[in-house]
Amino acid sequence: MPNSQYRYLQRHFSDLIRDNKLKSGTKLPSEREIGEAFKVTRVTVRQALQNLEAEGLIYRQNRRGWFVTPPAVVYDPASHLSFNRYVAEQGSTPHTEKLAQQVEPANAKIAQLMCITEGTPVLFLHRRRYINLRPILIEKMYINLDLLPGLENEDLSQSLSQLLQQKYQREYRDMDLSFKSTALPSHAANDLGISTGQAGLQVERINYTSDKKVLEIDYEFWRHDAVTINIAIRD
């Protein structure tokens, strides 16, 4: 395919988005409609759109089409602010959907990290997070029930940090964090309604109590275009 065709298309939509003529959340015409309007093949259209997606300007939702990407949320994972709070403070609407909540035996890795015996019951929590109705984050969490008895009976679609404070008088204190830019694994991509292998950010976090016990192990999978990591360090 001639490079000029898909590059022209890419530049055309890029300019519209950067000039705010195509606004955040706007649905683009279908690939067929774009091809007919510009008299190019579907392959050319798809190449241009995929390049725009790689730039973070648009995103594809399975079975729904292409949309203009909203501004990324600024996220400080060391701040201890709840998802609901930091999203709301940036002028957007957060929502949490609980996909699974069940007690299960700790596997060898989780047991080692929590310093508990393999097979000890832990709470597994699987949630999908939204900003303005767009799914942007998958969480898979393992929670130490020895420190939070009865938590399995709570509604954990709500803010976990607020629940810990109100019911258990506990707060997140120290944490270990790791970040990895990666192709999203199939389980996370499926949960987000996007194609397996798309770029994403994987965050692994271990939260500790004030007496250095592991309270929670959290694995997060973000859309690459949905988040800007910003960590403030002060003396």
UniProtKB/TrEMBL annotation:
InterPro entries: Bact_HTH_transcr_reg (IPR050679), Chorismate_lyase_/UTRA_dom_sf (IPR028978), Tscrpt_reg_HTH_GntR (IPR000524), UTRA (IPR011663), WH-like_DNA-bd_sf (IPR036388), WH_DNA-bd_sf (IPR036390). GO terms for molecular function: DNA binding; DNA-binding transcription factor activity. GO terms for biological process: negative regulation of DNA-templated transcription. The keyword Nucleus does not apply. Residues 3-71 form the HTH gntR-type domain. Keywords: DNA-binding, Transcription, Transcription regulation. SUPFAM superfamilies: Chorismate lyase-like, Winged helix' DNA-binding domain. It comes from the Bacteria. This is UTRA domain-containing protein. It comes from Marinomonas transparens.
